[in-house]
């Protein structure tokens, strides 16, 4: 039998807050990479220099501010650094998005609203499941089982939400039906 603390030891429990913040980086990096492609394609790379000149010192100062226990007596450590990195990445990404959308003459407000509204339901699902499992103390004795069950429940609820409201991921009802028909045909044609 593998001990409970082999992979997910109690000493790493505090890291869950940091990891939950850092889990948003893949979402933001998709937008950052797409932004970069547009900037390189339009040969407007001087924007990266300007943003770097602003955000690099800001990042260094805020990192010192959040971590330093000598100067400011805060000592927020890892959680604050993760929030700082995520916040600065979101701000720089939105600035470049605005610049790209302005140069391409695309409605920026609708895109930003859709970007944040597409993430909000999944944050709500995640937080609700976490509170529910904590309230009932279902799998507190086994961290691995808690991780697997909460991941499974999150996946089920997320699929149901996407099925009920396909607009969250940018589909309308007819696209959803078409995709489900294609999936149905592939599954059942292969099996015949």
Structure description:
The longest helix is centred in the middle third of the chain and has 28 residues, at 77-104. The chain is an all-alpha fold and 192 residues long. The chain is built from 8 helices and no strands. The radius of gyration is 22 Å and the shape is flat.
Task: Compile the SSE list and pairings.
Blueprint: H1 15-22, H2 25-41, H3 46-67, H4 77-104, H5 108-117, H6 120-136, H7 143-164, H8 173-191
Briefly note the structural class of the backbone. mainly alpha
Broad shape: flat
**Low-pLDDT segments, ≥5 res:** none
CA-based gyration radius: 22 Å
Structural descriptors:
192 residues, 8 helices, mainly alpha, flat
Q: Quick recap of the structure?
A:
The chain has 192 residues and is an all-alpha fold. It has helices at residues 15-22, 25-41, 46-67, 77-104, 108-117, 120-136, 143-164, 173-191.
């Amino acid at each position: 039998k593998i001990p409970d603390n082999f992979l997910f030891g109690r000493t790493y429990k505090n890291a869950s807050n940091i990891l939950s913040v850092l889990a948003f980086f893949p979402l933001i990096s998709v937008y950052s990479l797409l932004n970069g492609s547009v900037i390189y394609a339009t040969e407007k790379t001087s924007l990266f220099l300007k943003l770097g000149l602003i955000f690099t010192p800001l990042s260094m100062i805020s990192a010192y501010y959040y971590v330093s226990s000598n100067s400011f007596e805060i000592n927020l450590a890892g959680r604050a650094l993760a929030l700082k990195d995520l916040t600065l990445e979101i701000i720089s990404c939105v600035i470049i998005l605005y610049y790209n959308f302005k140069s391409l003459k695309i409605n920026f407000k609708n895109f930003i609203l859709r970007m944040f509204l597409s993430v909000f339901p999944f944050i709500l699902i995640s937080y609700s499941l976490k509170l529910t499992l904590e309230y009932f103390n279902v799998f507190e004795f086994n961290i691995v089982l808690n991780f697997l069950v909460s991941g499974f429940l999150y996946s089920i609820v997320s699929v149901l939400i996407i099925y009920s409201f396909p607009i969250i991921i940018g589909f309308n009802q007819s696209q959803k039906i078409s995709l489900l028909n294609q999936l149905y045909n592939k599954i059942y044609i292969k099996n015949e």
